[in-house]
From TrEMBL:
This is TMIG1 protein. Keywords: Disulfide bond, Glycoprotein, Immunoglobulin domain, Membrane, Transmembrane, Transmembrane helix. GO terms for cellular component: cell-cell junction; plasma membrane. Residues 20-87, 96-171 form the Ig-like domain. It is found in: Membrane. SUPFAM superfamilies: Immunoglobulin. It comes from the Eukaryota. The keyword Membrane applies. Its main location: membrane. GO terms for molecular function: cell adhesion molecule binding. PROSITE patterns: IG_LIKE (PS50835). It is a single-pass type I membrane protein. One of its GO terms (biological process) is cell-cell adhesion.
Length: 222
């Protein structure tokens, strides 16, 4: 049977690379007695090829490799029978670029979540610090959440002692990166008893009304 290979691989395979590198892929037709036209796809989109790069052997180059190439499959297919194909999936190694809202103003008693966005490959590990010291997690007060793209620190019912600078430290394959988050805790503002004041005002008005009504005759005689 007719077969295709990419870089001498006849079955689908992953290919590890790094950010900024160049990747060359060569697709070759095997066991064919005639000229066969080849097609390349990046994901579901067809790649445009020059006329001299379509028959029996076809090459594509990815340069520079970037984050958007991670996890993307490049597939070589036979033009007359697209079921004959072979794919390579890029595994791109790239460091985290930390981001997230840096300053949070919050009142005592409220909840807050500090979100450190840190997409990278391979997935990194994160540690939180407070005022340059390791953060001591308190059960029921602190909560950590982590995915492949974000690290979150949630603080329940914030207190004045939570005020300070929190640092997200992400350790990855070739070093570490940090991002500071400033938590400014304000004293809880006294709640103005609006309903009570309105009720008292209504009582005073009603009392004054009935008082005036009771003395109406006297006012008229004067």
């Amino acid at each position: 049977g007719l077969e295709l290979s990419i870089n001498n691989q006849f079955a689908d395979f992953p290919l590890s690379t790094k950010l900024g590198y160049s990747v060359s892929l060569s697709c070759l037709v095997h066991n064919s007695s005639q000229a066969e036209q080849l097609l390349w796809y990046r994901g579901e989109g067809q790649v445009s090829l020059k006329d001299g790069n379509k028959v029996n052997i076809s090459n594509v180059c990815i340069f520079p490799v970037n984050e958007s190439d991670h996890g993307v499959s490049f597939t070589c297919r036979l033009a007359r029978d697209k079921s004959v194909q072979v794919s390579v999936t890029l595994d791109v190694e790239f460091p985290p670029q930390l981001s997230g809202e840096e300053t949070h103003h919050i009142q005592e008693g409220e909840d807050v979540t500090l979100t450190c966005n840190s997409k990278c490959n391979p997935q990194a590990q994160a540690v939180w610090y407070k005022d340059n010291n390791s953060l001591t997690l308190q059960q029921g007060h602190h909560e950590l959440y982590q995915t492949s793209e974000v690290f979150q620190l949630s603080i329940k019912e914030v207190e004045q002692s939570d005020n300070g600078t929190y640092t997200c430290v992400v350790e990855y394959f070739s070093g570490k990166r940090t991002r500071d988050f400033h938590l400014l805790v304000e004293e809880k503002k006294a709640v103005f008893p609006k309903e009570a004041v309105i009720a008292a005002a209504v009582v005073v008005l009603i009392t004054a009304f009935f008082g005036i009504a009771a003395r109406k005759d006297k006012f008229c005689k004067v």
